[in-house]
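Annex B.
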Amino acid sequence: MAAHTLLMSTGARLRDRRVRLERRATASKAVRGSLVSLAGLVGGPVTNQAGEEVGRLVDVVARLYGAESYPPVTGLILRIGRRRTFLAADAIGKVHAGHVRLRAARVDLRDFSRRPGEALLARDVLDHQLVDVDGVQVTRAADLYLAPLVDRVVLVGVDVSLPTLLRRLGPRRWQARPTPERVLDWQAVAPFAEEATEGPPEVRLRASRTALHRLRPADLADILEDLGRAERQQLLGWLEPEQAADALEEMEPAELEALLREAQPEHAARLVDEMEPDEAADALRDLTPEERESLLTRMPDDRSAELRRLLAHREGTAGGAMTTLLIIVHRDATVAEVRARLAEQAEHRTEIDAVAVVDDEGRLLCDMALFDLAVAEDAAPVADLVAWRAQFGPPVTVRADTPLSEAADQLVAARASSLLVVDDTDRPLGRILADDLLDALLPERGRVHFRRFLQ
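CBS domain-containing protein: predicted structure tokens.
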């Protein structure tokens, strides 16, 4: 049944993606047949209606960050002699492969001043990094494709294929020929032109930004690892803090360390503050004492104190790998009350697989699995479940100074997915999850993502 449900949900996602693709401009045969290579245009002639050359094309200006699904061309940058000048889009008559023809014999040339949201496509986007939000990967724009759409020229696609790079190295007559071996529709792209622009660009990402928010944390981690320094800081700024923190938790330690060092201290502290306690402590351990203190002093006092307690435990011990995120309930509570406590922590569902039941002194009585709570009656007292669990023996726990190798042996022997860490009086301190043990004991294993494997 679970496999059937998974297949159905996967099929639904694929159908949704197919519908989105069919609605895109590059899916139209008419549009694909009228594609014009930006690389082939740059350096080419711009002629007036009489066929006389007005100048040579230097760049194409488009409103990259606007409300439109496909950025409209708003003008051209021309070289006339030694002068560079701007020609508004309403003067463009026809964009051919390799050259542009204007509407009239006389044209209005003016100085170029960037308006909000505009980018120079050849300078700011061509050969720069992009995020393919459909393929979930970082790529580079080998060429950009323009096409007439309704009554204007728009940017419709990005070519990321190797043959296109080779075509651009060839003779001029080759450069103007589109070779769309692998075209990404512009709606599937998140560009990083902000760092490359002059003036105040206004970043508005529309569909591509929405698509970024749909990606899994592991996919975002892959993207962050592949981006350059400026681009990944920009991507982090687009994400909600919680989503960014989830992605950081999936990154390789060395990449995460570099990212935190690159970020402004206030931003880095905010990201670490959003991470799960054990993941945050691991990230801070990789920094120098000065860097660590700089981030801790920028966090709320209670969060900073919590992380300092975790950092006080030696690396390679249970205390050094545990999370302090615990659900602790008294034995007098009902199952319904415990479920309400769990519902309050829904955002931490991946960190909680059991509930610690304690007595009046706060000492551990039972480590109650969520399955046992799921099948119990709402009105049932937790004490009854504790009594029932007692037949299987006392809960398996470890001390904070227990070596991780020993904790792993106990976890395997108990056939559990986590272990509680307790103090000398059996009061819960934290919990070690199975995946945290694997990360600590097998750091060289890296992260295996199905997406990369299938590619």
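The first helix runs from residue 2 to 22. Residues 31 and 149 are 8 Å apart (CA to CA). Further annotation is deferred to the next reporting cycle.
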